[in-house]
Design the sequence.
């Protein structure tokens, strides 16, 4: 009899996330390597572009105890992320973060924001319902840094793109 599914995180060579995901799928795990849609400069101006939200990070879920020796033997895998107490299963804000990513099918779209004094207010998009707080805003790159948890978490912060909208009757 298997237990409830638990989530874990592997750190792999950047750019090898898809290969690691394919191997995890072949072994019966349910992997996720999230994307973020960002504004990127191009010859035609600024365009939307998909890139890895956390390069090198691959999350996976399983009801069984993972075969750690098999996973770490893959040349693309650098290490299995674990907490200071030696536990591998994600918990707390790390687990909540992965659940949030799954809610958006692993792709974090650009969120619309309204400038309110020195702060930004999320009007829609995935950042509106995220459990985290904005610590930095880069207006030139149209990005915000979101802190996900405290120092005891495996994942401390992420950068996501935003699009400013003007205040009008539709946003009230």
Sequence:
């Amino acid at each position: 009899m298997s237990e409830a599914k638990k989530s874990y995180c592997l750190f792999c060579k950047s750019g090898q996330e898809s290969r690691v995901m394919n191997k995890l799928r072949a072994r019966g795990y349910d992997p996720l390597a999230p994307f973020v849609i960002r504004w990127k400069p191009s010859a035609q101006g600024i365009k939307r572009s998909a890139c890895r939200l956390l390069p090198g990070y691959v999350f996976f879920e399983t009801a069984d105890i993972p075969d750690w020796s098999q996973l770490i033997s893959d040349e693309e895998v650098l290490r299995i992320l674990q907490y200071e107490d030696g536990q591998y299963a994600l918990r707390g804000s790390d687990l909540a973060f992965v659940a949030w990513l799954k809610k958006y099918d692993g792709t974090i779209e650009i969120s619309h924001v309204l400038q309110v004094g020195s702060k930004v207010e999320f009007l829609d998009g995935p950042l509106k319902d995220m459990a985290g707080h904005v610590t930095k805003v880069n207006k030139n790159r149209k990005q915000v840094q979101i802190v996900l948890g405290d120092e005891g978490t495996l994942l401390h912060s992420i950068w996501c793109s935003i699009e400013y909208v003007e205040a009008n009757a539709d946003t009230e």
